[in-house]
Amino acid sequence: MSSPSKATLRESELPALRDARPRGGLREVGVLAYPVILTQVSITTMHVVDSAMVGRLGATELGAVGFGGIWTWTAMCFFVGATTAVQTFVAQHHGAGEEERCGAWTWQGFYAALPLTALGCVALLLGAGALVHQVGPSPELEPLATGYIRARSLGGVGLVAAVSISSFFRGTGDTRTPLYTTVFANVVNVVLDYGLIFGELGMPRLGVVGAGIATSIAEWIYLAGGLWFFSRSKVAQEFATGWVAPSRDAIRRLLRTGLPIGGQWWLEMASFAAFSALVVRMGDASMAASQAFIVLLSISFMQAIGLGIAVSTLVGRYIGARDPASVERSFRSGLALSGVLAGVIALLFVAIPEALLGIFSSDPQVLALGRPLLLMGAAFQVFDAVAIVADGALRGAGDTRWPMVVRFGLSWGLFLPLAYLVGITLEGGLLGAWSAGIVQVALLAAVLVVRFRSGAWRRIQI
Question: Exposed, middle or buried, 461 (CB in 10 Å: 0-12/13-18/19+)?
Fold first, then answer.
């Protein structure tokens, strides 16, 4: 890429000089990250609302949403992950002062991902029943989970297209626009959840299926809002966001970076879906407790994702600007902030586990299973936050293949066998199975941090 233009220097270097702060410091990461964190918290709120409302129907219904949601995301995460590569290309062009080359990557993201996403959604819609039956949940949970998965498959294309647009904005350093579109979509989701789950506001009572339909509609609303901002004249003039034809070379480059991201997301999520198959056979109460635990973990997870996206943007920007010192400083700042946020969540998990679990269920068995999970989760989410930020830094540099191999090895070679050994063979139950997750995520965090600090990202060319 070319050297930074004067416009780039005015935009990024001079403010840093005026503030007498180094680029990539805590303030810059925090300012860029907080809208993304709010976006992710909004997404978490949507899942909390879904689970809390469905949980009022019973433990089986809550377990069905958790089980169905895991398998739906397993099917979709490959396409979503691959599309996030748009951010890496946009950030590096933006850092190099090549704003006119940024908008086209969103369109190439559409061309690369949407046809396959559509096929995946059709396969999920038609094959949901066979998939759920093969896993073998309880007879009561099986039809509910099948209906939820089918309803969720209707929103997959809209979600992936919206992620391509959000990745463009985040690559340019605009993290507020995705926040606005996500919040609006989530407000729609809350209203539709209330109406379609319980039959209120003149809507039919659809229960678990209603929750899935509400989320799918919200995903299309998310896309509509993103397209509106993407097509505005100011954005179009600055970043050339108008329609462009498919480019075989651009799609190839995008897939070369994006497929390992999608691959690592899918491999890791598939292992987690297989883990859920172990949990669901422990009973509906175990699945419900596990779902409540996962949703509460996502409070920390989503904050770390926000910081990871911010760090990814800054790493890409400063690689484009040929400023490796700021690249490393951005990484260190992200780790520091993630540690603080994860520490706050850990304190909540330890101090008020009953109150947090009570959001989702009043079932005594679910609460009894969930309390020790939250105590363990206090440590789990600290390691997870470190891994997410390190992964974001590597992604911003285009270092995506190596993390995919590591995640595959740890998820399938360690996590699943250990979960089966401790949870099933040694009869450790739900807590024993989840303890394997702590071992896996702690090792993952350590390996990813070492990878970034090794400087291997300096040799990556996208």
Answer: exposed
Whole-number pLDDT of residue 55? 82
Number of C-beta neighbours around residue 307 at 10 A: 29
The lowest-confidence range among 121-135, 269-283, 366-380 is: 269-283
Closest CA to 397 of 342, 346, 453: 453
Q: Is 313:84 a contact under the CB 8 Å cutoff?
A: no
Predicted confidence (pLDDT) per residue in 422-437, tens digit: 988 888 888 888 899 8
C-alpha 216/C-alpha 222 separation (Å) is: 10
Sign of CA dihedral 68, 74, 79, 85: positive
Look up residue 435 and give its two tokens: 């303890």
Going 186 to 192 to 195 to 198, the CA torsion angle's sign is: negative
Rg of the chain (C-alpha set): 21
Quick one: pLDDT at residue 44?
67
Range name among 167-181, 235-249, 295-309 with the lowest pLDDT average: 295-309
Q: Where are the beta strands (DSSP E) in 156-307?
A: none
Summarised one tens digit per residue, pLDDT across range 257-307 is 999 989 888 888 888 778 877 887 788 788 788 878 877 887 777 788 889
pLDDT tens, position by position, 435-449: 998 999 999 999 999
Alpha carbon distance 44, 297 (integer Å): 10
The CA–CA distances, whole Å, from 147 to 150, 209, 298 equal 5, 5, 24
The dihedral through the CA atoms of 129, 130, 131, 135 has a sign that is positive
Give helix 429-453 / helix 284-320 axis angle, nearest 10°.
10
- DSSP secondary structure string for all residues of 116-142: HHHHHHHHHHHHHHHHHHHH---TTHH
How far, in Å, CA of 405 to CA of 383, rounded? 19
Whole-model pTM: value is: 0.77
What are the CA-CA distances from residue 10 to residues 20, 161, 419 (Å)?
15, 32, 53
Give the DSSP per-residue string, 322-345: T-HHHHHHHHHHHHHHHHHHHHHH
Closest CA to 95 of 5, 184, 219, 206: 5
